[in-house]
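Memo to structure team: turn this sequence into structure tokens by end of day. - J.P.
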Amino acid sequence: MVVVCLIKNREGKYLMIKPSNYKNFGKYQEAWYPPTGHIKEGESNVEAIVREMKEELDVEIRPVKLLSEWEQDVPGEWAYWWECEIMSGKIKMSEELSELKYFSTEELKSLKLWPAETKFFQKFFWN
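Reply from structure team:
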């Protein structure tokens, strides 16, 4: 299971990231997605999202609202989609990332996204 963190800036745009060559994602190597991480054994999804955002972006976040439990692109893998806010720290890129940027929901439509992300945004933002 994974956690997905939707962080919105003051302009109402959402933070999206692109992977580095740290891992090989095949045809999705250039795809954008919200900051995401795996839940460790014995960890709640809230604990996981706080830990993952500290590790991946070097920020302290507060999960505000669970938006959805959503099936990911890997069969049987589920994600908890959280609306989050940054409480402290300045976003820093880790070795796992090649790029990060904020996009409006309209701008997201023109990006190459993972299929699960496309389905999520279609259901909750583009309807």
